[in-house]
Amino acid sequence: xxxxxxTALPNARATFRDWLAxxxxxxxxxxxxxxxxxxxxxxxxxxxxxxxLGFENVEVVPSGRSENAFYTESAKERLRAHDPGGLLVTDLxxxxxxxxxxxPTLYVDHHRPEGLPEGAVVSGYGWDPIxxxxxxAYDLLAAETDVDDLLWVAAVGVLSDLGDKAPWPxxxxxxxxxxxxxxxxxxxxxxxxxxASEFDPETPLRLLLTGDGPKALSDGPxxxxxARYRKEVAAELxxxxxxxxxxxxxxxxxxxGVAPDRLRFALVRLDSPCQxxxxxxxxxxxxxxxxxxxxxNTGYRPGRVSFSTxxxxxxxxxxxxxxxxxLGPEHAQHDDDYGHGHDAASGGSLPPAAFNRLLDxxxxxxDAYVPDP
Length: 373
What we know:
With 373 residues, the protein is of the alpha/beta class. 39% of the residues lie in helices and 14% in strands. Helix 4 packs antiparallel against helix 5 (151-162), helix 5 crosses helix 6 and helix 7 packs across helix 10 (223-240).
């Protein structure tokens, strides 16, 4: 049973306030955020809002390509190099494994939790409505300090994750103040940086941290790179739209009750250096509402199959299905990035052999497999 947001938010704000009260204002506080528009917006909100609460040393660090905050050692090494006195992890999930042992950590997130780590947790999962991370960040900060001038930053994250009809109460005000046109431009340009083959979340993050409005993404320092990324992604997306789906032939091989009966998946195979697979999965989701759609990209990460899955069916819980699939002893169930995310949006990155085993367990014939070099 979900909890109304208005009921859950006061407790979340108290958790946030208590965690901040226990931190040294002069110590280094690192904000670790996801590289998409929602994650970068949430990171920028904390990066700009926490100094207004007296924190003197705040650093915002976006996650790397295909990194998992809980299982990728390179991510943990980068964070340790900052020597944080406190760590705020946002839009990267909540997992019992935790991120950095011994570092006081606050998680601000909205994905399906996978156990509770040590530290404090503000999770919007199970709220009604479920807020994205930027929405959560704005509401937490707004109870502690004036962040009205950062409304546009929150709007970028909300529009990216929840769309134009998001139930965020401040969205209409943000559109009126900054115009829907420029907010949507900022969303597209922010996401283009992580979808491009170059992978450059730092450029939009800098503009979200320093800009005075969404136009900064179009005419601020580095915006020429964002425009270039946008063109590259558009060209790759046009090519990816030509791919046609194939369909599974039998029910997934998972324990009883994990997946509904007569569940069939659709698969769209891609080969692009850009992160277009989430967009393709989302587009086919609307065209194939009865099928969870897997968009699998063999060109995004050498030697891996990067894939995104989207479903329009409320009774299908994608992370639960993926984590119930037996990939074999040679492939860890949490292989850096696999089977996490939202109930309706999950995926991962696997070696070809493991991905083909996944396809087999989901009911696809060998004709659907990707080449295994």
